[in-house]
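ESCALATION

Customer reports they have been waiting on this structure for their group meeting. Please prioritize. Original submission:
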Amino acid sequence: MKLLFLNSLYSPHIGGGAEIVLQRTVEGLHQRGEDVTVLTTGPQPGLNFSLVRGIKVYRAGLLNTYWHFSEQRPGALARLGWHLRDRYNSGMRQYIREVIEQQKIDLVVCHNLSGWSAAVWDEIAQAGIPIVQVLHDMYLLCPGSNMFKKGAACKTPCTLCKHFRQGHAERSAKVDAVVGVSRFLLDKLTSAKYFRNASSHVIYNSSPDIEENNERYFKAAWARPEPLRFGYIGTLSDQKGLRWLIEQFKALPFDATLQIAGRGQTDYEAELKQFANSPRIEFVGYQSPESFYQQIDVSVVPSIWNEPFGMVAVEACAHSVPVIASNRGGLPEIIEDGVNGLLCDPADPDSLGRAMQRMHVEVGLRERLAAQTRVSVEHLLDQERMLDSYQQLFHQVLTQKTTQRGNDYVLQHP
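Update from on-call: job pushed to the front of the queue and completed.
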């Protein structure tokens, strides 16, 4: 089976967790003997080929006003023009056509479509090749991919988003199977009338690089004297709820520390640091998960948008660190209140402070949660299980498409 994986970016261009999971998936399937090819966008014009860790990778020069993976954020007017072109970028179809013909592709697995646009479905369907769409975000409902505006999560697409996505749900009828990396994300798109002809599946992302070597750390964790150490790791951006976290932490009536790891836009980082203005809050920059989780007692994931999945919550649990997480998006599918962490709600701002206070007062609760964290996410640390699910789905879709073609031939040639 010759598989083509299509995504906005691919290593060494990493925009987020989607690219990391995609690379793991592609390399894992390659090791299992599948013939895999990747098609992604790039800054250079034309179609360029290279091998990345043994994987065939084509990079297509993006036919838009600028390549979207750049350090400098363009102005609002430039972004608007980019998204207008990205409503349906027919020029990108030529690249898909060329790679399908060169590699004799049997099935295309679409991931993030930013830059490619929904035009890819039309080109692939025209070639008579089955399509599997993997959902990592809300790009198909919102050009910004996050449905977050003016400091709050959008309950429904705004008028501008509806305009930019007009006709997309109808085009998605060409997709044969759709995969959500969380139940929340899958339901969000299918309830918006997307993928009406597709079979629906949830396949959770896996994080296989975390070894079970935290027993010594766990046993010593609760013997440490105060202060209690809270921590946040991830992108520093508005929708991640960092202002909420800092505000609630500063109001705690007990001694504690807060470490904030990660990077964001320079001006936003400066604003956060000025807002924090406390010797108990430290911005530590980029940290590896292995190092960071040994420096904290409780991880906080205070997202105020609908997080599509929440791999940082998985990683914290895998390192035997209990989690306080927002009851938003896919996070409640990872963190179960009272089992491996506590849930809070951005609609009730003080719920975050109450959860942090419980972690301080109820030491027994903290110990019990930490003891259960690793086992609670074991199924999300098994990459082989994830690969099994994808392989089974690909074979199923290809078989159904082949059978359908045979039936269509019989009907046309009785």
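Sent to customer with the following note: Residues 215-379 form a domain with the Rossmann fold fold (CATH 3.40.50.2000).
Escalation resolved.
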